[in-house]
Design goal:
508 residues; alpha+beta; six-stranded antiparallel β-barrel; 12 helices; 27 strands; protease; Trypsin-like peptidase domain-containing protein; hydrolase; Peptidase_S1_PA_chymotrypsin; Chloro_Bact_Ser_Proteases
Length: 508
């Protein structure tokens, strides 16, 4: 039997509201009514007991102001002697993380087909309210959330921890992994979420969820890590992989919010619950989230401008240059493979995500100050963000766009290690598709952004140099019906596409 899973708030619910008290569910009304009746019953019972006992004035003992003050002083003395246990690690963790959690809400239009009595059908549009949660990962206001929280939302409204409100703009998204990056409007700096790791989680360790549950902003719940590495099918077209299962209370509106460890560090992004179950919820591991968000930002930057370098994490810290485009801005600035970028303008760089974020606010044509280390020496240079239209000045990029219809970048060492480990292969690498030209050979074969090109014909495309050599091959220049190999979500696929014929004088 196939289990039925759902996103916490895949469909933006019409019942959502930013003021929960304005539209309480019927169940809460019943509870409130029973509670009021219980108070009334208690009062009636007390009155009956009073009458039966016929209490006299002698049974009453006045408490003087002096005796009350003395009692309070005694309580204070006791509290000094006895250390309070109320401020638990959970309290400290929530206090540490809560200021970087934001609540998202907005409207989207959905269309439904309605049938009339005459048998005709028509599209009926209606507005529905939705809600979700996000976490601030950069002090300039960049927030990570689930894609289904902001999908097709006309205006993303945000409530911050202090109760103030603003709006946000969608910057980049990855629907396949259900993640999105939005930017808060307004003056920063904004407090960022403390980051943990998900590669060392233990089943049974305590966790905390914070989110906009049913519109109740900044609701906190606790639980444990119930299981790790869960693969969850949502529907016929979407599934989640390698999730954290938790018993923390997760409800509609928690989507995109943080799952914290007991130190108040984010170790996951809450994404789904098991329909009809209790205390079975799931979160995307934070290591996976940060890798996906980094790729999202790099793709977004690549569409706006070209710097001309590829990099990877460095054990010594910083962002290590791996490859450079010949004649590109980074190469002209003096950078070489092996250099470690440690600062861009005023931003210190220790991870690929920080490097991607550091250039996210840059405009095409802007010069960036780059500080890098080569050996034991530290240098400074300036690189330009060349508008993407100038990408065609690079012969390899121009040919890939013309002949295949793709823009690419190296997939990196982590991809190569994972593929060789899982598939028992000897791939030397691959090229991530960052853009697909409409109407091209790649587009006709449904190649997507995020796919990794492994090879064309019998040749591996493990690097930009490999691709350049392949595209210059006489057989490829004639525009054959070429076999290609790609990886999509760790699954190797192949197909055939008709490559464009290259004019004999087309290359310089």
């Amino acid at each position: 039997m196939r289990f039925n899973y759902q996103n916490i708030d895949t469909c933006l619910t019409a019942s959502a509201t930013s003021n929960p008290a304005a539209s309480q569910p019927a169940a809460l009304t019943g509870v409130r009514g029973a509670w009021v009746w219980g108070i009334a019953l208690a009062v009636i019972t007390a009155m009956g007991a009073w009458d039966t006992a016929s209490a006299s004035a002698e049974d009453l003992h006045a408490v003087s102001a002096t005796s009350y003050r003395n009692s309070a002083a005694d309580d204070d003395t006791l509290s000094i002697k006895r250390q309070s246990h109320r401020e638990t690690p959970t309290v400290t963790a929530i206090r540490r993380a809560a200021p970087s959690v934001v609540n998202l809400h907005g409207q989207k239009t959905i269309r439904q087909t309605a049938a009339s009595l005459a048998g005709a059908s028509s599209d009926v549009a209606r507005q529905v309210n939705g809600m979700g949660t996000g976490v601030v990962i950069d002090s300039r206001g960049y927030v990570v959330t689930n894609y289904h929280v902001v999908e097709d939302v006309y205006e993303i409204n945000v409530t911050l921890h202090d109760g103030s409100t603003t709006t946000a703009d969608l910057v980049a998204s990855d629907p396949a992994n259900d993640l999105a990056l939005v930017k808060l409007r307004g003056a920063g700096p904004f407090q960022t979420i403390p980051r943990g790791h998900s590669n060392d989680l233990m089943v049974g360790e305590p966790v905390i969820a914070i989110g906009n549950a049913f519109g109740y902003v900044h609701t906190s719940t606790v639980g444990i890590v119930s299981a790790l590495h869960r693969d969850i099918p949502v529907n016929e077209t979407q599934s989640y992989r390698d999730l954290i299962q938790t018993s923390a209370g997760i409800n509609p509106g928690n989507s995109g919010g943080p799952l914290l460890n007991i130190d108040g560090e984010i170790i996951g992004v809450n994404v789904a619950v098991r329909v009809g179950a209790q205390q079975i919820a799931f979160a995307i591991p934070i290591d996976q989230v940060l890798d996906t968000v980094t790729d999202m930002i790099i793709r977004h930057n690549d569409r706006r401008f070209v710097i001309g370098l590829q990099g990877k994490p460095s054990r010594e810290g910083g962002f290590q240059v791996v490859d450079l485009i010949d004649g590109g801005s980074a190469q002209r600035g003096g950078l070489k493979p092996g250099d470690r970028i440690v600062k861009v303008d005023e931003d210190s760089i220790s991870t690929p995500l920080q490097y991607a974020l550091s250039v996210l606010d840059a405009m095409p044509g802007e010069k960036l100050r780059v500080e890098f280390q080569r050996g034991s020496e530290t240098y400074e240079t300036f690189v330009s963000t060349v508008p993407s239209a100038s990408e065609a000045k690079d012969p390899v990029a121009a040919l890939a766009w013309q002949v295949i219809g793709v823009a690419v970048r190296p997939a990196g060492d982590s991809f190569t290690r994972r593929m060789n480990s899982q598939m028992q292969t000897s791939y030397r690498g691959g090229l991530v598709i960052t853009d697909v030209r409409p109407g091209s050979a790649a587009d006709e074969q449904s190649i997507r952004v995020g796919d990794v090109l492994l090879g064309i014909h019998s040749w591996q495309t493990s690097s930009l140099a490999d691709l350049a050599e392949i595209l210059q091959h006489p057989e490829i220049r004639q525009g054959p019906n070429a076999k290609f190999y790609i990886v999509r979500r760790d699954q190797t696929l192949y197909g055939h596409m008709k490559l464009a014929v290259q004019p004999t004088t087309g290359r310089r």
